[in-house]
Amino acid sequence: MERLTSPARLMIVSDLDHTMVDHHDPENLSLLRFNSLWEHAYRHDSLLVFSTGRSPTLYKELRKEKPLLTPDVTIMSVGTEITYGNSMVPDLGWVDTLNHKWDLGIVKEETGNFVELTLQAESEQRPHKVSFYVDKSKAQEVTKELSQRLEKRGLDVKIIYSGGMDLDILPQGAGKGQALAYLLKKLKSEGKLPVNTLACGDSGNDAELFSIPDVYGVMVSNAQEELLKWHAENAKDNPKVIHAKERCAGGIIQAIGEFKLGPNLSPRDVSDFLECKVENVNPGHEVVKFFLFYERWRRGEVENSEAYAASLKASCQPGGVFVHPSGAGKSLVDTIDELRKHHGDKQGKKFRVWADQVLATETAPGTWMVKLDKWEQSGDERIGCNTTVKFTAKEGEGLVWEHVKQTWSEESKLKDDSSWII
Ligand code: GLC
Ligand code: MG
Prior knowledge:
Layout (H helix, E strand, L loop, with lengths): L9 E5 L14 H14 L4 E5 L4 H10 L7 E4 L4 E4 L4 E2 L1 H6 L6 H8 L6 E2 L10 E4 L2 H17 L4 E6 L3 E6 L4 H14 L6 E6 L14 E4 L5 H10 L6 E3 L4 H11 L24 H16 L7 H9 L1 E8 L5 E3 H10 L9 E14 L2 E12 L2 E14 L3 E11 L14
Helix pairs in contact: 1-8, 1-9
Alpha-D-glucopyranose binds next to strand 9.
């Protein structure tokens, strides 16, 4: 969070399963639309927070399966674990507050008396979260009975039912809502309370997110029955919470537009980049746009025309160099010629490219260094590259690419891939 020196323009706090991630869309289109919108228009001055019910183990699995961006803050295990940055540094202060009237042993003992409860996987049992599966028809009754028993044993817990199947038991002070309130308080104390915050969710454990004061909220179109019921009973008259018409990340983009929180046109929704005007001089945007073009080029979704090649070459410095992750260097112009040969070679295949953590710094007036992680998914294989691009602003021409350098990302080092183009 130290990355930002002033309050975030927008802080998005989003659930993952069935909110940011659409498990019914194998192409991940709405997620990829969100990703390019975030990287081109928000990453530099805003905060991305993921708030998931998953434990760190299952969260990391999801990251491998889906093209998720790297968030600034990761809240896991239904608001019981908060971590910061790429290296996921835990917030130990938060953990301390959760021990109040909480005893894991007693929770396990009492829940053992309920035949209706089936324990979830070991990975999902956490220091401040005990999770079960329970049939929809039994959920209310079990919740009531269990809370009475735990209260009698001196505990103060919160029992949350989500997705029509999951039952989580947490300390009363935990949960996604409390974790968000804690984060907002922390940011405020640093003088960095976000200008706007948007909470996004689809199921029971997200309900609390929508009752935090001054926070906008979107329940995605595919929200679960238990969340819609909670909304009807508790937040129907709050104009800051909407039920989107679009599914998952599409609903998040819709909410950004409806609440007027900032730009809501994803670069993926722009079909022809040649029509993008140059007045919009934004180096991060250039990079997002280029890699999207590259994806479409190899998928054969843009025409193999002289006009595109010429426009790409025109945006490169004549002596500009591209350093391949293998260490070999060649001119940017030759790289574009090379790219021409690969037009449509991924047609009909699973091939996607996305940029993560795009950050631009003006190193001298008119000179920009853009750093990003570029990811390429081809079939079931994914390769990442740490990429640095140097741009210079040229009178009347907008930004010109001067130098591109790529190195394999940590996860991709062993995969040295000769078919790599850019
Ligand atoms: C995630 C967790 C699970 C939890 C559920 C609802 O699926 O893995 O343990 O019960 O979210 O919060
Ligand atoms: Mg969910």
